Write the structure tokens for this entry.
Amino acid sequence: MPLPLPGFFTYALPSSMEALVQVGCRVIVPFGRTKYYTAIVSRIHKEKPEGYAVKSVSELIDTTPILLPSQLEFWQWMADYYLCALGDVYKAALPAGLKLESDGEEIVRRFKPKEEARVRLGENFQSEESLHALFDSLRKTPKQLDLLMRLLELSNHFGKERKEVSKHQLMKDEASSAAAFNGLVGKGVFQTYTVEIGRLSSSNNQETVVKHVLNAPQQKALEEILETFQQKNVCLLHGVTSSGKTEIYIQLIEQALAEGKQVLYLLPEIALTTQITQRLQRVFGNKLGIYHSKFSDNERVEIWQKQLSQEPFDVILGVRSSVFLPFQRLGLVIVDEEHENTYKQQDPAPRYHARNAAIMLAHKAGAKTLLGTATPSIESWYNATEAGKYGLVQLTERYRELQLPEIKAVDIHELRHKKLMHGAFSPDLLNAMRDALGRGEQVILFQNRRGFAPMIECHNCGWIPRCVNCDVTLTYHRSSNQLVCHYCGHSITPPQVCPACEEADIRSIGAGTERVEEEIKTYFPEVKVARMDLDTTRSRSSYEQLIRDFEQGKTRILIGTQMISKGLDFGNVSVVGILNADLMLSYPDFRAYERAFQLMAQVAGRAGRKNKRGLVLLQTSDVKHPIIDQVRRNDYKGMVEMQLAERQMFRYPPYYRMVYVYLKHRNASLLDQMAQTMATRLRLIFGDRVMGPDRPPVARVQKLFIRKIMLKFEMKVNPLRIRELLLKVQQDLLSEDKFKTLTVYYDVDPA
Ligand code: ADP
Ligand code: ZN
Ligand code: ZN
């Protein structure tokens, strides 16, 4: 059932359905007094449950399974490992169009097949004589005659092979008149009918391009990967930015297809699919399918069904959720930019990590997994080195000996002190931008905060507006003139005078992408600027447009949040500015330094053109910070070694497995009591592996208070045993009256 409830439910099968039903088929079942849900058949048996009246299945939707047995197994693994209900996985996995729901009345079928209106000549006019008579009779209505001639032509009426004609095709011509069309339908000359057609656009470019020939280092890496796969299921490809990792993936995909296998190619972000899609489509044409949330639900249903058919896509390019698609003969999984934390689903359950889930998916299918990145996650690095679980292949040269960029740190603390900063810009950065633009080159600016200003503040009394629902300050968005909560979306118009002291002296502090954009326009009024963040990329086409315009040089400066750090490949960018590194370094999380390094190294990697070394200016008020130094020297190993030492000392991943237990309630003091009780009971079982309860950085969201208990387990402890014990404590607690209203959920391997 698509519900956050544990276990399975048993329903009686009417004899009429008995011969038709199979495991993996959808059925509609009654639930509670008035509800109906789409359930998936997981087992067919003859064991009548005791103690309650078994309800009957209302309707059988499928006669062939929509879920493969391997998928059901994968779902079960995910629910077990990530401590959630199977129904949570079901809800996340199936496109909404395959789930029918009702509140007691009619069941809504969300999936609508796409239809096309077509036109043909009426039965009475098929013979030659009747057609001639028709021509005569239409002489006085030349528009109808024209339209008739057009249909005869399009349908190849007098030729050997007749063709079907869509109404759209017929009416496309400007001369075609709707009145004439209706007139002909009225006379029975035209007959209209509809046919079901698919939405999946079959791209016409079928493997037109010969793929690139690998250079020597790339060829060597490819061979090493294939060798690794002889012994290991997972291989980490650590290749600097622009070393040609994607070219290697293409070769591996070809090999898998030649062996009759399917490939799943995972990307962390929809923004990235645009560029990679083009590159893959050139080589794989119609064999490539794309799957992500910016596609309409109907399209996603069609891809799902195609993957179950006799002719599935051989290659699926997609984000996180594509691990849930049906694969009949998976042979290879590629996880590109494997270090990206957008692979981790935060809310709602299942809070899975798509990289790790993909490794499990591949493992169950007997397939291989390749993890690729310029800045491996510390976990993957550890697994490929100390732990010896994965193979490790390295690519240290950029393609065509392109040099890695020069990275300079700029001390904005001192510049601010000397009043030399121009808003968010240091003189060095402005000069470098001016030079680059003057040479006809492009610039990327990275500011990891959207909106106009992170905060507004009363200059008189220090009042700061906060969200009424959440424990966060509101961000000012200039274009909409609103203060917005980035957690719940709550927004208000900024007050003219301070509600606390009634002074009219409210100012904004700090800069978001929107403000950076505005400042640039004052320094470079004649230069076209684009901004890429969550606010400017709500639709699929807006992403594509932004990227295309920058690729084609229509925009010269691109400002963005972490969205621009991921593997975008532009040929004319010579300067990259990191406006403020301090934000990333001060984030209260054990992964903050790792993440800051990855982000900065990735953004820096966007700089550099053929025959010319790129320049990166890294603005920070802490130039001596070890991470800043490691980024500057491109010292990944130095960073990893330092971080691993700290992680081991303070008991963090990859040496320990972490589980966060989250508790939510409307009443803060009740919640504190309940959290204390739960932590005490957990300590009885797990001892000093239990930490907290604590307030998380954001301790209230959407009117619910939140507390967090942190658990750290040695890697050798079996996750299933952890699950068992945790759920036991939870069940005992929630069965007591005073805890009934408490919400408990888990985050396993938080990221
Ligand atoms: P990465 O994925 O490591 O960042 P890419 O595969 O995007 O690197 O390669 C960077 C650029 O170099 C791309 O434009 C790509 O087309 C080009 N390139 C890399 N290897 C080759 C090759 N062997 N032949 C032709 N072009 C290549
Ligand atoms: Zn005030
Ligand atoms: Zn809020």
Notes: The domain at 26-108 is CATH 3.40.1440.60 (GIY-YIG endonuclease). The chain has six domains: 26-108, 115-196, 219-400, 406-449+516-646, 453-510, 656-748. The longest strand covers residues 704-714.
